[in-house]
Amino acid sequence: MIEMRSDTFTLPTEEMLSAMGRATLGDDVYGEDPTVNHLEELAAKSVGKPAACLMPSGTMANLAALLVHVPRGGKVLVGDESDIYLYEAGGASVCGGMVYEPIPTRPDGTLALDDLAAAFPPDPDDPQFALPGLICVENTHNRMGGRVLGQAYLAELKAFAAVHGVPVHMDGARIFNAAVASGLPAEEIAAHADSVQFCLSKGLSAPIGSILAGSAEFIGKARRVRKMLGGGMRQAGVFAAAGTVALTDMVDRLAEDHRLAARFAAGLAEVDGIDVAPGSVTTNIVLFRVTAEGLDAARFLEDARQRGLAMGEFGHGRIRAVTHRGLGPADVPAAVAIVADVVRAAR
Question: Which keywords label this protein (predicted)?
């Protein structure tokens, strides 16, 4: 099977498995796992924040950030195509009693400042309105095809947030893809956010884990939330060791994933019955549509899977394919050939 549903299907490297077996362990709930402590220091430095906390998942890391930033009854401003809004089970409402206000997501993954401004009540003292407590952005933006948010936009957003007295949280699940694609250090990208989450278990290939980073005070509160949510882990150094390898050895190789995605998109563009914009592919996510007559997305995906290619449906009639370390150079032309065969067979 050529697996292109997600970069979460990556498996740990031999170096990660070896590091996991050699890890020095302690009780992380007491703050005494040296391997976790080392990873958190490394992770905080990598995104230019004073402190960081290891979380079991990106969903928990984002939820912890929202619970720290926004009081009960407050609003969190999120993109209507964001992972936090669509794919994280409404956790902020369920656990934090806060309101999501979805903001229209533009094709480049940004949220227009005018749209954000409209979410603030004209009179903040009017008790009828829930008050915004946080703005969330996503970088890279998953449902916009792995788009990288520009630095100029992020600077404008941070200035806007400061004027309105609210913090900015960056769901940077793939922030290192953004860094590699833009040629900028991740810390420069994260500088425009008060807090940032990033995944160790996607393209970086660790088996589990995400990082939440921010100020020391913020992370202190996030640790309490993590415990409340059931994320307090004991000898967590077992997988923190893999996370350390992910940050030290796996960032630069993300460029290869981007090259494979560009090659896949270029190949798809040659298939009659497939609609794709190769020029929009900047990281490791390719979005396309099947336009061949008589072939809908569900049938296309099933026929492709029967031929050995796994991809995913992605809303709005789109298909998503994600490149990652588990793919080799030969897999891309093979995947294109499968797509072409599925389309041809449907005619």
Answer: Lyase, Pyridoxal phosphate
pLDDT of residue 347: 78
Torsion of CA 89, 94, 99, 103, to 10 degrees: -10
Long-range Cβ contact pairs of 150-156 (< 8 A, separation 24 or more):
150/108, 150/110, 151/182, 151/184, 151/188, 151/189, 151/192, 153/110, 154/189, 154/192, 154/193, 155/192, 156/113
Domains of the chain: 7-249 (3.40.640.10), 253-345 (3.90.1150.10)
Q: What is the pLDDT of residues 180-224, one digit of tens each?
A: 999 999 999 999 999 999 999 999 999 999 999 999 999 999 999
Amino acid 165: pLDDT: 97
Q: The whole model's pTM is what?
A: 0.96
Contacts of 157 by beta carbon, 8 Å cutoff, 6+ apart: 110, 111, 113, 116, 135, 137, 168, 192
Q: How does DSSP classify residue 110?
A: -
